[in-house]
Design brief:
This protein is of the alpha/beta class and 249 residues long. The chain has nine helices and eight strands.
Length: 249
């Protein structure tokens, strides 16, 4: 429990809890052919503090149910939605992305940036599909190999962290087998990792450690984050998040 509480404290002060960016969210919106001419019901799953949620609310005429299992993140989103005059469009909800209460064919769009790995890509796209209306849109970012071959060191790292990492062609095949028609795909650029996620996180390390009296648990968490950053900087040519956009057949 202490680890989770500290992890929340480390991440809740940042705009993003994972790689991404507003231009990238907007690009996915365009590839999904979504615009303000449609009134949409959207679920943003694993929304964190709501960077993508707020972007969706600005760009679209939508009712957005934003789901995350961490209450602190949901409360920050609630405050940000109020400050942005978007509360009428955004409905933050504490909940798990593997235990959703939507009805079949209820949603026009399911959005999930950097969160589907929590339950696994294959399980997520299959479990969530019934909630979408026919021709409803699925838009998710997922850790993806950028090459067919890579050094043993990075292969072993991701095999231990997330064995479902794979190439885009394999992920798209899973989407097709699950009953989706691919609409678009692109790779998140480096700045989504460094400028938007890792560098703000690094700037938080000293204050975080000081706040928690440099405890062993706090230091262990920071060391783990530093290791993750080191891995990305060393092997960024071999992996990134891929953004997958597809429609329900």
């Amino acid at each position: 429990m202490e680890n989770l509480e500290l992890l929340i404290d480390l991440h809740q002060h940042n705009d993003r809890q994972g790689p991404g960016g507003i231009p990238e969210t907007e690009r996915a919106i365009t590839l999904a052919a979504l615009d303000k001419s449609q009134h949409l019901k959207i679920a943003d799953l694993g929304c964190g503090t709501g960077a993508s949620t707020l972007c969706l609310a600005h760009k679209l005429d939508a009712e957005i149910i934003a789901v995350d299992f961490i209450p602190e993140f949901i409360e920050i989103l609630r405050r940000n939605a109020e400050a942005s005059n978007l509360s009428q469009h955004i409905h933050p909800k504490v909940g798990s992305i593997d235990d959703l209460a939507f009805a079949d064919n209820e949603l026009d769009v399911i959005w999930s940036e950097g969160a589907i790995y929590n339950i696994g890509f294959e399980q997520g796209i299959n479990d969530w599909r019934p909630f979408l209306k026919p021709k409803g849109v699925l838009a998710v970012s997922e850790i993806t190999w950028l090459t067919d071959h890579r050094p043993d060191e990075i292969q072993s790292y991701w095999d231990s962290q997330y064995p479902e990492i794979d190439t885009a062609s394999s992920k798209i095949k899973l989407l097709e087998e699950a009953g989706y028609a691919p609409l678009g795909y692109f790779v998140l650029p480096e700045h989504c990792w460094l400028d938007n996620y890792y560098h703000p996180l690094q700037r938080r390390f000293d204050a975080f450690l000081s706040c928690h009296a440099n405890s062993d648990v706090a230091q262990t968490l920071v060391e783990a984050e530093m290791k993750e950053i080191e891995v990305f900087e060393k092997f960024k040519a071999y992996f990134s998040y891929g953004f997958y956009i597809a429609s329900k057949r």
